[in-house]
Amino acid sequence: KMDDDDDDIPQLSSHALAALQEFYLEQQQREGMKTSQGFNQYSIGSIEEDWQLSQFWYSDETASCLANEAVVAAGKGGRIACVSAPSVYQKLKEQDGKDFSVCILEYDRRFSVYGEEFIFYDYNHPLNLPENLLPHSFDIVIADPPYLSEECLQKTAETIKYLTKGKILLCTGAIMEEQAAKHLGVKICKFIPKHSRNLANEFRCYVNYASGLD
Fold it and tell me: In sequence order, what are the residues at sequence separation of 6 or more whose Cβ sits closer than 8 angstroms to the Cβ of residue 33?
């Protein structure tokens, strides 16, 4: 009888089921990150915003502009660090073959799909960085602190100052202008960055060198 047969179907334990679900999820993520049918694993939006982590991606135009600025500022063979600015990192990676190197410092471990260029970063521990990330080893650091608070900016500033040889490109709210000058010695640019979704807070860029953003 059918009822008897149903009793014989093996039931997975909840632990095994959870493990299986996790495996399928990882498989889906791996498949999703593969370049197929023209899909670019570095395109903005390939990893979705997580608002709980205060993530808001730049518009394509803004990300391109900031990436191009970083390449020029870094110079030939330059090293670029993107701190909490994954959409700029993704735009830089789209310029594959250009003469520069880049890494991404990010709290969101989904970006670990980018391999060795991904460095787990928590602004609450600004100098908790891998040993191979030597001080003053980047020609430019681009940073977009996740929160509009002086504490977040101050801690992120410690990381920026540790990493950069000198050049800083900071993206944060217009209300942070005074604190940005205080902690990083940066000045506001004329260029107005835009996000793929409109934010309530006015957003600006700040630099400490003669940039192409004015």
Answer: 41, 46, 113
